[in-house]
Amino acid sequence: MIMSHSQNKQAAQNTDWSALAAQIKQWGAELGFQQTAITDTDLDDYETRLQQWLARDYHGDMQWMAEYGHKRSRPADLVSDTRRIISVRLDYLPEERIDLKALLDHPDKAYISRYALGRDYHKLMRKRLQQLADHIQQQIGPFGYRAFVDSAPVMEKALAEKAGLGWIGKHSNLLQRHTGSWFFLGELYTDLPLPVDEPASNHCGTCQACIDVCPTKAIVEPYVVDARRCISYLTIELKGSIPVALRKPMGNRIYGCDDCQLYCPWNRFADSSQEPDFDPRQRLDEAQLVELFQWDEETFNRNLEGSAIRRIGHERWLRNIAVALGNAATSSEVIAALQARTDHPSELVREHVHWALEQHQPVGKESSS
């Protein structure tokens, strides 16, 4: 947590802040971060855009986006005495064995967002940010800090853009000219008067590949995403029933969606991650929908231990796969798998299973479900 400036007064008098900033970036690289940069706490422009986005109800059921007042856009309100934020990025794209575009809408395989194929990134990044803080503390003595990895009201993409790690693209993800967008972000809030880095410039130009390819047309205008239509929101954040009109466009995407990244020209420069923890587990990079749908809750929890996917729970897992099976090629195996869940205890699961079965009815034939 942030401490009083008085505790650091003597150390501050003897610190070469520019040299320390350079050292911090070196330590970041040694810890495995692909980039480390520093910015201040002025997010006024981003705050205005956030408020406009919230006013349009584009956050859907994510009420936490509207909570905490200005703590999200005013770092010092979240962690007192914050003066500088150290922003880091860590590549996560696993070495691919298959054509990802071919996997999209595959007739019987599942598509899972690439970031979720391996172990949950939160603990790994928090541990390394703590190690970075330890290095700084060993150099200058006690200082105030707090590490974040998608775990608090933090505008991580805005901070990363200000720090120069990339620019926020038309799909609202952060883009970097030399590596695309397949990376995680993390932050270390500090009370140190470090020199700041130059913000990144925008290089989207006239391209709108992400807008054109979005299956549910969630990118309602450049740089604005209506989360209520986004497949990542529908499969991860939404707790209730998926709107019927959006089920067909979801295809075989059962956890998250990467379309806007897959078709972004800048991602032709993306590097594969060197982190073993991000390697696919349980063959999730090419798993069969029917196989995943047959997992009971115990199998789900066991197979996905340490995975970000586990947070949605078994019920929503089945809901999502039911939709994908409804969009799959009709086969006796698919129909049998769905019929086996028609009496599931969860009304949410049953409703999506019945919808899926209806998709496999011959044209003009009424469903008996």
From TrEMBL:
Q: In which pathway does it act?
A: tRNA modification; tRNA-queuosine biosynthesis
Q: Where in the cell is it found?
A: Cytoplasm
Residues recorded as binding cob(II)alamin, renumbered to this chain, are: R72, D150, L174, L185, S232, C257, D258
Chain sites annotated for binding tRNA: K239
SUPFAM superfamilies for the chain: 4Fe-4S ferredoxins
Swiss-Prot/TrEMBL keywords: 4Fe-4S, Cobalamin, Cobalt, Cytoplasm, Iron, Iron-sulfur, Metal-binding, Oxidoreductase, Queuosine biosynthesis, tRNA processing
Q: Which residues form the 4Fe-4S ferredoxin-type domain?
A: 192-224
Q: Matching Gene3D superfamilies, A to Z?
A: 3.30.70.20
What terms describe the molecular function in GO for this protein?
4 iron, 4 sulfur cluster binding; cobalamin binding; epoxyqueuosine reductase activity; metal ion binding
Cofactor(s), by name: [4Fe-4S] cluster; cob(II)alamin
Kindly state which reaction or reactions the protein catalyses: epoxyqueuosine(34) in tRNA + AH2 = queuosine(34) in tRNA + A + H2O
Q: Which GO terms describe its biological process?
A: tRNA queuosine(34) biosynthetic process
Q: How does it assemble?
A: Monomer.
Q: Which protein, by its recorded name, is this?
A: Epoxyqueuosine reductase
> What organism does this protein naturally occur in?
Thiohalophilus thiocyanatoxydans
